[in-house]
C-alpha cells in the first residue's frame, strides 16, 4: 500500500495536538453573531429572541385594575366600617358601567374597575346577603387598586432587546397592543451525513441533531447524505444555509473524508479539539459560512454538538450561547478520573443530592447518556474529582 | 335591581371557603391519566412519553466498537512494546476489511472495529511515520474495546415505559433498528375564551396558554370564543377534545358566566381553590371530559394553569405531572409576607445566590412575572419567610 492511497494521509484521529477548548470557543464566537431581525406574529414568537426593545404605546394598564379579589367600591363609602360597625352597600351585577356611591361590585384581581370606583375591599372584609353587601372594613382611595401606568408608562420599554420570549411575555406583548414583533431570524442549519462506518447502523446522529438544532432556535434547512467527496463539496458550498453541520467522515477511521473536503472547498481552520468525547471535531468555513465537522458516533457527536455546534446555533439565533440545561449541585458518590489535557464530559445519574458517575473517557457508549440524568464537565487541567466533591450537574431535559 | 338579574347570584369571586390546593390536586389526579398509545416515527418522537418499553432485537452494539480514539490492532502484535522498545506496524487505510496481524488502522471512539482486531491502542501510545505506526505500549485483548452486547443483550429493555424521550434517546432507538415507537397520544386541548373584562384588551391569556399547552405535551385542538352562554355550552360539550380550558368569565366581576355554563351542561365540582393568584379557578366535567375554568387576567391565568391545568395536560400526555421548571436554591434578599390559608406564588428575580421577591399577593400584574426569573411557592399554612431564608426557586425557561 502506498502512502498516497486515498484517505491514507488523512487517517484519523487528526494528528498533532488538539486545539484547546478555549481556542475553539474563541473561533466560534468570532465566527457567529445574531442574524438580522424579522417580523413575526406575537403568537409565533415563543422562544425567539427580540431584535429590538418593545415599548408600550399606551400606559400599562391603560385603566385602573383591581389589585385583589374582592369588591370595587367608592372608598369614601366605606369610611367608619368595622367588624362591630358594619355598613351596607348595594351589590350590583358586573360590568364597567359607572358605580354609584352606595354600590359595590365583585371583582377578581387584575380586571378593570368600573367607572367611579377607587378602592377594592378584600373579599374577607365583606359578606354578601342577597342584594346587599355587608362591609366590615374601610379602604382608602387607591387601596388594592393598580393605577393606570403602574406596569409601564407610555413609551417605557416593556421588554429589552435580546430577550428570549417566554409564554407570559407573549401575553404582555398582546396587552400592550402588539400583533407582531421583530425577532432575530432563525438560523438555517444544513445537516450533512458523510460516509463513515459509524453511520452504517442508521442515521442515529442525524435524528438527534435535528432535535438539538430546533431546541437551540435553529431551523433544519435540509438533510443531505454525501455519498462521495463531490457531493460533500456541493452540499457545503450550496447557498441557503447559515451553518452547515457535517457528521461522520471526520476522523472516524474511514479516512478524513470530511476534513479533506472542507480543506479543498473552503478552509479547515481547527481540526481536533481537546474535548472528550468529541475530540475529532473540525471547524472551518466554506463559501463564507461556518462549517462544523462532527463525529459520526452518536455519543461523540452529542458532546461535540453540545460543546461547539449548539453554541453556534444559539448565538446565530440571538442567544448568549450558554447551555440550555439547568444546573443542579450534587455530591459525587464515587471518584471520577479524567485525562489531563482533555475537557471531559462525565455522564451522571442523580440520586437525591448525589451524583453517580457513569462514565468519562471510557463512556464511549450512548447508553451512558441514555442512562444519565445529566453530565459534569471536568476541566482541561484536572485529573478528576474524589468522592464527596460537590459538582455542578447539567441536567438533561 | 332584583337578585334574579342575570349574573347577579353568580357574582364572583366564588363564595364560600376555597378548596384546599391538595383537594384540587387529588381531584385532578383522579380525573386525568395517560391516554392510549399510538405509533409514531422515531424522528417525530422527541418529548413524547413511551407507552411501552423498548427492547433491543439485536445485541447493542451488534459488533465490537473502538472504546477510545486510537488505532485498532491485533493485541498480540503489541506484546512487549514500550517507550524504550517501540514496535512497528503497517498503518492501513480505514474500512472494516480484515486487519492483518502486522497492521493497524486509525479509529475514533465508537466506530466498529475492522475484522480481526481485538484491541485499541490509545492515540498517545503510538505515532504515525508515513505508512508506519510506531507503537510505544502494549494492549491486552479486549482492551479499549466495546464488546458486542455491552450496551444491551438482545431482548434487554433499552428504554422503559414512561420515559420522556430526549434527543439522544432517539439516536439509541435508531441504533437498535427501530423506525417507529409506541408513545402516549398527545392530549387534544380546547381553549375557549369566555367573555370577561379581562379579555377586553386582547387575547393575552390565550396566546400564553397555547404555548404552555404545547410545552406540556398537549396539542391545541382549537381555540374558540364563546360570546354567549349557548356558545360556551356548545364548545364545552362538542367532541374532539380530551380537556377543555375555559379562560375568563369565571369569577371576574362579569358574572360567573363560565361557572354557570359548566354547572348547567356538566358538573362544576370545585370552584375556588386556595391559591393566589388564581383563586377563582374551577374544575369540573362536561360530556365525560375534564373542563377547567381559568381566570382571564393573565397573571392569575398563568398561576392557575401552572398549578392545575398544566399538570392535567402533562398527566394526560403520560408524564408524572411535575413542573417542567428547574429548581435552584437561593437566599431571600428580603422578607416575603404571605396570607395564611393561601398557597401563594411569589415571583422573584435571581441575583447570584440571592432571590429578590417581586410580589406575592399584591403582585397581580403580569409585569412581575415578566421581570422575574422564576417563582417561589409559599405553602398554605405559612405567613411567609424572613430575609435570609433558603428557598427553592422554580426557574422560568
Characteristic terms for this protein:
homodimer, about 400 residues, alpha+beta, Molybdenum Cofactor Biosythetic Enzyme, Chain A, Molybdopterin biosynthesis moea protein, domain 2, Molybdopterin biosynthesis moeA protein, domain 3, 4 domains, six-stranded mixed β-sheet, 7 helices, about 20% helix, disordered N terminus
Share of β-strand residues of chain A: 25-35%
CATH class of the largest domain in chain A: Alpha Beta
Assign the structural class of chain A, choosing from mainly alpha, mainly beta, alpha/beta, alpha+beta, or little secondary structure. alpha+beta
**H/I helix tally of chain A:** 7
Shape of chain A: elongated
Biggest interface pair, counts: A-B, 105 and 105 residues
Distance between the termini of chain A: 49 Å
Helical percent range of chain A? 10-25%
Enumerate the spans of chain A where pLDDT stays under 50 for 5 or more consecutive residues: 1-13
CATH architecture of the largest domain in chain A: 3-Layer(aba) Sandwich
Explain what you see.
Two copies of one chain form a homodimer. The first copy, chain A, is of the alpha+beta class and 397 residues long. Chain A folds into four domains: 21-35 and 186-316, Molybdenum Cofactor Biosythetic Enzyme, Chain A, CATH 3.40.980; 48-60 and 150-184, Molybdopterin biosynthesis moea protein, domain 2; 65-146, Molybdopterin biosynthesis moea protein, domain 3 (Molybdopterin biosynthesis moeA protein, domain 3, Beta Complex), CATH 2.170.190; 326-395, Beta Barrel (Beta-clip). In chain A, 19% of the residues lie in helices and 30% in strands. Chain A has seven helices and 26 strands. Chain A has a six-stranded mixed sheet, with no helix packed on it. In chain A, strands 14-13-15-19-18-16 form a six-stranded mixed sheet, with helices on both faces. In chain A, a hairpin with a 2-residue loop joins strand 22 (343-351) and strand 23. The radius of gyration of chain A is 30 Å and the shape is elongated. The first copy, chain A, starts with 20 loop residues before the first helix and ends with a strand. Chains A and B meet through strand 3, strand 5, strand 6, helix 2 and helix 3 of A and strand 3, strand 5, strand 6, helix 2 and helix 3 of B.
Amino acid at each position: 500500500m502506498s502512502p498516497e492511497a486515498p484517505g491514507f494521509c488523512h487517517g484519523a484521529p487528526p494528528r498533532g495536538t488538539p486545539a484547546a477548548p478555549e481556542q475553539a470557543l474563541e473561533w466560534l464566537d468570532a465566527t457567529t453573531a445574531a442574524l438580522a431581525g424579522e417580523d413575526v406574529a406575537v403568537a409565533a414568537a415563543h422562544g425567539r429572541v427580540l431584535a429590538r426593545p418593545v415599548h408600550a404605546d399606551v400606559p400599562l394598564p391603560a385603566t385602573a385594575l383591581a389589585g385583589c379579589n374582592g369588591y370595587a367600591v367608592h372608598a369614601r363609602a366605606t369610611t367608619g366600617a368595622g367588624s362591630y360597625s358594619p355598613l351596607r352597600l348595594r351589590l350590583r351585577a358586573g360590568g364597567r358601567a359607572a358605580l354609584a356611591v352606595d354600590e359595590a361590585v365583585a371583582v377578581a384581581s387584575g380586571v378593570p374597575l368600573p367607572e367611579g370606583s377607587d378602592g377594592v375591599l378584600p373579599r374577607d372584609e365583606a359578606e354578601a346577603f342577597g342584594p346587599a353587601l355587608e362591609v366590615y372594613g374601610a379602604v382608602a382611595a387607591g387601596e388594592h387598586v393598580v393605577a393606570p401606568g403602574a406596569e409601564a408608562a407610555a413609551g417605557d420599554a416593556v421588554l429589552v432587546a435580546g430577550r428570549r420570549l417566554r409564554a407570559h411575555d407573549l401575553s404582555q406583548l398582546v396587552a400592550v397592543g402588539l400583533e407582531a414583533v421583530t425577532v432575530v431570524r432563525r438560523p438555517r442549519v444544513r445537516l450533512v451525513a458523510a460516509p463513515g462506518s459509524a453511520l452504517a447502523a442508521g442515521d442515529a446522529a442525524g435524528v438527534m441533531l435535528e432535535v438539538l438544532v430546533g431546541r437551540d432556535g435553529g431551523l433544519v434547512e435540509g438533510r443531505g447524505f454525501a455519498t462521495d467527496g463531490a457531493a460533500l463539496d456541493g452540499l457545503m458550498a450550496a447557498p441557503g444555509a447559515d451553518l452547515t453541520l457535517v457528521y461522520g467522515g471526520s476522523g472516524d477511521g474511514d479516512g478524513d473524508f470530511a476534513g479533506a473536503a472542507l480543506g479543498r472547498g473552503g478552509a479547515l481552520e481547527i481540526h481536533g479539539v481537546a474535548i472528550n468525547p468529541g475530540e475529532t471535531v473540525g471547524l472551518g468555513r466554506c463559501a463564507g459560512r461556518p462549517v462544523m465537522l462532527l463525529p459520526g458516533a452518536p455519543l461523540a457527536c452529542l458532546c461535540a454538538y453540545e460543546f461547539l455546534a449548539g453554541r453556534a446555533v444559539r448565538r446565530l439565533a440571538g442567544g448568549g450561547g450558554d447551555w440550555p440545561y439547568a444546573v443542579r449541585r450534587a455530591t459525587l458518590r464515587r471518584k471520577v478520573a479524567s485525562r489531563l489535557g482533555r475537557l471531559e464530559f462525565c455522564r451522571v445519574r442523580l440520586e437525591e443530592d448525589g451524583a453517580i458517575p457513569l462514565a468519562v473517557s471510557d463512556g464511549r457508549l450512548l447508553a451512558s447518556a441514555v442512562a444519565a440524568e445529566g453530565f459534569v464537565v471536568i476541566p482541561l487541567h484536572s485529573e478528576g474529582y474524589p468522592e464527596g466533591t460537590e459538582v455542578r450537574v447539567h441536567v438533561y431535559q
